[in-house]
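Thread: Newbie trying to understand structure tokens

Hi all, I'm a second-year student working on a class project, and my supervisor (Dr. K.) asked me to get a predicted structure for one chain before our next meeting. I've only ever worked with sequences, so writing a 3D structure as a token string is new to me. If someone could post the tokens and maybe explain what I'm looking at, I'd be very grateful. Here's the chain:
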Amino acid sequence: MKYLITGGAGFIGLKLTKELLKNYRNKVYIIDSLINNSENKKLSNVLKNKKVKLIKKDLNHISSLKIYDFDYIFHFAAVLGVKNVIDNPYTTLKENILSTISLINFSKKQKKLKKICFASTSEVYAYSLKSKLVKYPTPENIDFLISKDFNPRTSYLLSKVVGEYLMNYSGLNFVIFRPHNIFGPQMGFRHVIPQLTKKILQYSKNKIIIQNAKHKRTFCDINFAIDLILRISHSKNSRNSTFNIGSPDNEISIIDLAQKIKKILNSKKKLISSNIKKFNSPEKRKPDMKRSLRYSKIKHNFEKGLKETVMWYKEYYTK
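---
Reply by user tm_fold:
Sure, no problem. This is what the structure looks like when written as tokens:
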């Protein structure tokens, strides 16, 4: 089969590419502007496979791509990153919506397309949870709530809400994924696990302040997430539906997560909880995984994934 993955040089897109290549019959096209991935060694290794082709292109110019026989299209490309979104809300909203429209128009030209798979975000639940209007853990079938305050961070979740509507109105067979805190080696450096690892390894003082210490999350290992994404996307029963992609485990507080990382690193530094909120982060987030777990064939292993991730970043930071 032939696959197109937008944002394919990113963390999830690249892992998905590697998994697809385990079937020698598959061919994968990666579209990525490479703004954040120009020196990605993992990408370079993947590109050695003749079944992979990299197209360095902005999605707004995808109409010039003259390939019309993709079986599946995965849309992971987006303006993202909390600080980047807060600093550039207009660009975030504009680019994420326009790129999705461009990809839908391109997808409509495909003669063999079985499904377009759109990566939304767990952020779409943020205001509904804050206002206590939805169940917790959060199921997929909720009403969206948008804040009346023009918080710059809202630009990202709003662009994803619009993206979900575009998929529903596109006339294409689609599936929507809402990822929740997916982690693993080479996930980037702005996420909580690599940031905590760096702090514990490199901070010169013996006491480390942990921001948002009481906030709770479930963290989903990348291998479990990719297995779900592939099984759900290729199922006939998932057509025109939305699925949470996340961990089925219990929540863990950020301070407890830091303690686990500290133990893996065999550090003696003292961790101190801070009540100061950073980036207006949601206090808790846990997906209802009942719908998605029907497709699961492997068991989620948070402890194993966390150790592998922390040790990868330890090696990186201590080179």
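A couple of things are worth pointing out once you decode it. The longest helix spans residues 89-107. The longest strand covers residues 174-179. Feel free to ask follow-ups in this thread.
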